[in-house]
Amino acid sequence: MAEHHEELAHLFLEGEEDEALSYIDELLNSYSRFYVFEQVITQSMYYIGDLWEKNKISVADEHLATAVCDFVLSKLKADTSGVPARKQRKHKAILFGVEKEQHYLGMKMVAETFQDYGWRVRYLGPNLTLEHSLAQIKKYKPDVIGLSAALSYRLPTVKGLIQQFEKLEWRPLIMVGGRMASKFDLEEFESDRVMVIKGLPHLHQWFKEGREGVINETS
Hints:
Layout: H1 4-13, H2 17-28, H3 33-53, H4 59-79, E1 92-97, H5 105-116, E2 120-123, H6 130-140, E3 144-148, H7 155-165, E4 173-177, H8 179-183, E5 194-196, H9 200-208, H10 213-218
Parallel strand pairs: 1-2, 1-3, 3-4, 4-5
Protein backbone atom coordinates (compact mmCIF):
# COMPACT_ATOMS: atom_id res chain seq x y z
CA MET A 1 0.00 0.00 0.00
CA ALA A 2 1.38 3.43 -0.96
CA GLU A 3 2.35 5.84 1.77
CA HIS A 4 0.24 8.95 2.24
CA HIS A 5 2.58 11.23 0.32
CA GLU A 6 2.84 8.81 -2.62
CA GLU A 7 -0.92 8.45 -2.81
CA LEU A 8 -1.31 12.23 -2.81
CA ALA A 9 1.44 12.61 -5.41
CA HIS A 10 -0.45 10.24 -7.69
CA LEU A 11 -3.60 12.39 -7.38
CA PHE A 12 -1.60 15.53 -8.11
CA LEU A 13 -0.01 13.98 -11.20
CA GLU A 14 -3.42 12.81 -12.45
CA GLY A 15 -4.82 16.34 -12.07
CA GLU A 16 -7.45 15.13 -9.63
CA GLU A 17 -8.14 18.35 -7.70
CA ASP A 18 -11.33 17.30 -5.89
CA GLU A 19 -10.00 13.85 -5.05
CA ALA A 20 -6.75 15.32 -3.71
CA LEU A 21 -8.67 17.77 -1.52
CA SER A 22 -10.97 15.00 -0.25
CA TYR A 23 -7.97 12.81 0.53
CA ILE A 24 -6.35 15.58 2.58
CA ASP A 25 -9.63 16.35 4.37
CA GLU A 26 -9.82 12.67 5.28
CA LEU A 27 -6.26 12.73 6.63
CA LEU A 28 -7.04 15.83 8.70
CA ASN A 29 -9.66 13.79 10.56
CA SER A 30 -6.90 11.56 11.90
CA TYR A 31 -3.73 13.67 11.76
CA SER A 32 -2.69 17.17 12.71
CA ARG A 33 -2.51 19.98 10.16
CA PHE A 34 1.21 20.12 10.84
CA TYR A 35 1.66 16.44 9.98
CA VAL A 36 -0.36 16.78 6.78
CA PHE A 37 1.60 19.84 5.64
CA GLU A 38 5.06 18.50 6.40
CA GLN A 39 4.81 14.73 6.06
CA VAL A 40 2.21 14.46 3.30
CA ILE A 41 1.97 17.58 1.11
CA THR A 42 5.62 18.61 1.30
CA GLN A 43 6.88 15.05 0.91
CA SER A 44 4.55 14.44 -2.02
CA MET A 45 6.09 17.37 -3.91
CA TYR A 46 9.61 16.17 -3.03
CA TYR A 47 8.60 12.75 -4.38
CA ILE A 48 7.35 14.35 -7.60
CA GLY A 49 10.58 16.32 -7.86
CA ASP A 50 12.57 13.09 -7.59
CA LEU A 51 10.48 11.52 -10.34
CA TRP A 52 11.18 14.51 -12.58
CA GLU A 53 14.92 14.38 -11.87
CA LYS A 54 14.92 10.68 -12.85
CA ASN A 55 13.01 11.49 -16.08
CA LYS A 56 10.09 9.36 -14.97
CA ILE A 57 7.64 12.23 -15.50
CA SER A 58 7.67 15.18 -17.89
CA VAL A 59 7.91 18.91 -17.18
CA ALA A 60 4.22 19.15 -18.06
CA ASP A 61 3.41 16.45 -15.48
CA GLU A 62 5.35 18.35 -12.83
CA HIS A 63 3.60 21.61 -13.70
CA LEU A 64 0.18 19.95 -13.50
CA ALA A 65 1.00 18.47 -10.09
CA THR A 66 2.18 21.88 -8.87
CA ALA A 67 -1.03 23.55 -10.07
CA VAL A 68 -3.20 20.96 -8.30
CA CYS A 69 -1.17 21.27 -5.11
CA ASP A 70 -1.51 25.07 -5.27
CA PHE A 71 -5.28 24.68 -5.63
CA VAL A 72 -5.40 22.40 -2.59
CA LEU A 73 -3.32 24.77 -0.45
CA SER A 74 -5.54 27.70 -1.43
CA LYS A 75 -8.66 25.76 -0.48
CA LEU A 76 -7.17 24.73 2.85
CA LYS A 77 -6.31 28.34 3.63
CA ALA A 78 -9.82 29.47 2.67
CA ASP A 79 -11.36 26.80 4.89
CA THR A 80 -9.46 28.15 7.92
CA SER A 81 -9.92 31.86 7.17
CA GLY A 82 -12.66 32.10 9.77
CA VAL A 83 -10.52 30.58 12.53
CA PRO A 84 -9.38 33.22 15.08
CA ALA A 85 -5.70 33.98 14.58
CA ARG A 86 -3.18 34.22 17.37
CA LYS A 87 -2.63 37.66 18.82
CA GLN A 88 -1.00 39.86 16.20
CA ARG A 89 2.62 40.61 16.99
CA LYS A 90 4.85 43.38 15.81
CA HIS A 91 7.25 41.05 14.00
CA LYS A 92 7.31 41.11 10.20
CA ALA A 93 8.64 38.66 7.60
CA ILE A 94 9.28 38.78 3.87
CA LEU A 95 9.46 35.46 2.01
CA PHE A 96 10.41 34.73 -1.58
CA GLY A 97 12.05 32.30 -3.98
CA VAL A 98 15.42 33.35 -5.39
CA GLU A 99 15.94 34.37 -9.01
CA LYS A 100 15.14 31.58 -11.53
CA GLU A 101 13.65 29.45 -8.74
CA GLN A 102 10.17 28.39 -9.83
CA HIS A 103 9.19 26.26 -6.82
CA TYR A 104 6.98 28.12 -4.39
CA LEU A 105 4.56 25.78 -2.63
CA GLY A 106 6.81 25.16 0.35
CA MET A 107 7.20 28.90 0.84
CA LYS A 108 3.42 29.31 0.86
CA MET A 109 3.21 26.83 3.74
CA VAL A 110 6.00 28.70 5.54
CA ALA A 111 4.06 31.95 5.08
CA GLU A 112 0.99 30.35 6.66
CA THR A 113 3.11 29.13 9.57
CA PHE A 114 4.37 32.64 10.28
CA GLN A 115 0.81 33.95 10.08
CA ASP A 116 -0.38 31.23 12.45
CA TYR A 117 2.11 32.55 15.00
CA GLY A 118 0.80 36.09 14.59
CA TRP A 119 3.43 37.53 12.29
CA ARG A 120 2.73 40.01 9.52
CA VAL A 121 3.93 38.38 6.31
CA ARG A 122 4.66 39.56 2.79
CA TYR A 123 4.97 36.60 0.45
CA LEU A 124 6.59 37.81 -2.78
CA GLY A 125 6.44 34.55 -4.72
CA PRO A 126 9.15 32.74 -6.72
CA ASN A 127 11.83 33.93 -9.14
CA LEU A 128 12.59 37.31 -7.59
CA THR A 129 15.73 39.24 -8.51
CA LEU A 130 18.02 40.89 -5.97
CA GLU A 131 17.00 44.33 -7.23
CA HIS A 132 13.28 43.77 -6.72
CA SER A 133 13.58 41.85 -3.48
CA LEU A 134 15.91 44.46 -1.98
CA ALA A 135 13.52 47.27 -2.90
CA GLN A 136 10.66 45.57 -1.06
CA ILE A 137 12.85 44.67 1.90
CA LYS A 138 14.12 48.22 2.40
CA LYS A 139 10.56 49.52 2.21
CA TYR A 140 9.03 46.96 4.59
CA LYS A 141 12.01 46.50 6.96
CA PRO A 142 11.14 42.94 8.03
CA ASP A 143 12.57 41.20 11.07
CA VAL A 144 13.01 38.01 9.03
CA ILE A 145 13.96 37.58 5.38
CA GLY A 146 13.13 34.08 4.12
CA LEU A 147 14.86 32.73 1.00
CA SER A 148 13.80 29.54 -0.74
CA ALA A 149 15.61 27.41 -3.32
CA ALA A 150 15.26 23.81 -4.43
CA LEU A 151 18.31 22.95 -6.50
CA SER A 152 22.01 22.96 -5.63
CA TYR A 153 23.02 25.25 -8.48
CA ARG A 154 21.07 28.07 -6.78
CA LEU A 155 23.69 28.08 -4.00
CA PRO A 156 25.81 30.90 -5.50
CA THR A 157 22.67 33.04 -5.84
CA VAL A 158 21.68 32.35 -2.24
CA LYS A 159 25.17 33.18 -1.04
CA GLY A 160 25.13 36.48 -2.93
CA LEU A 161 21.75 37.43 -1.47
CA ILE A 162 22.92 36.65 2.06
CA GLN A 163 25.95 38.89 1.59
CA GLN A 164 23.74 41.76 0.47
CA PHE A 165 21.14 41.31 3.19
CA GLU A 166 23.78 41.12 5.92
CA LYS A 167 24.62 44.75 5.11
CA LEU A 168 21.13 45.98 6.09
CA GLU A 169 21.42 48.38 9.00
CA TRP A 170 18.54 47.00 11.10
CA ARG A 171 20.13 43.52 11.04
CA PRO A 172 17.22 41.20 10.10
CA LEU A 173 17.48 37.47 10.60
CA ILE A 174 17.98 35.68 7.28
CA MET A 175 16.33 32.27 6.95
CA VAL A 176 17.35 29.91 4.14
CA GLY A 177 15.00 27.07 3.30
CA GLY A 178 13.47 24.97 0.56
CA ARG A 179 14.28 21.51 -0.70
CA MET A 180 17.94 22.51 -1.04
CA ALA A 181 18.20 23.08 2.70
CA SER A 182 16.88 19.61 3.50
CA LYS A 183 19.12 17.81 0.98
CA PHE A 184 22.47 19.57 1.36
CA ASP A 185 24.75 20.61 4.21
CA LEU A 186 24.51 24.41 4.33
CA GLU A 187 26.35 24.83 7.63
CA GLU A 188 28.81 27.23 5.98
CA PHE A 189 25.97 29.74 5.54
CA GLU A 190 24.91 29.76 9.20
CA SER A 191 25.87 32.53 11.60
CA ASP A 192 24.26 34.73 14.24
CA ARG A 193 22.44 36.44 11.34
CA VAL A 194 21.69 33.45 9.11
CA MET A 195 19.62 30.38 9.96
CA VAL A 196 19.08 27.34 7.73
CA ILE A 197 15.54 25.94 8.09
CA LYS A 198 15.40 22.23 7.29
CA GLY A 199 11.64 21.90 7.08
CA LEU A 200 8.46 22.95 8.85
CA PRO A 201 9.26 20.96 12.04
CA HIS A 202 12.45 23.00 12.42
CA LEU A 203 10.53 26.26 11.96
CA HIS A 204 7.84 25.23 14.44
CA GLN A 205 10.53 24.36 16.97
CA TRP A 206 12.03 27.82 16.53
CA PHE A 207 8.70 29.41 17.34
CA LYS A 208 7.98 27.09 20.28
CA GLU A 209 11.35 27.93 21.82
CA GLY A 210 10.44 31.61 21.58
CA ARG A 211 13.53 32.28 19.50
CA GLU A 212 11.91 35.23 17.72
CA GLY A 213 12.65 37.16 20.88
CA VAL A 214 16.33 37.01 19.93
CA ILE A 215 15.53 39.28 17.00
CA ASN A 216 14.91 42.17 19.33
CA GLU A 217 18.26 41.59 21.00
CA THR A 218 20.21 41.72 17.74
CA SER A 219 18.22 44.38 15.86
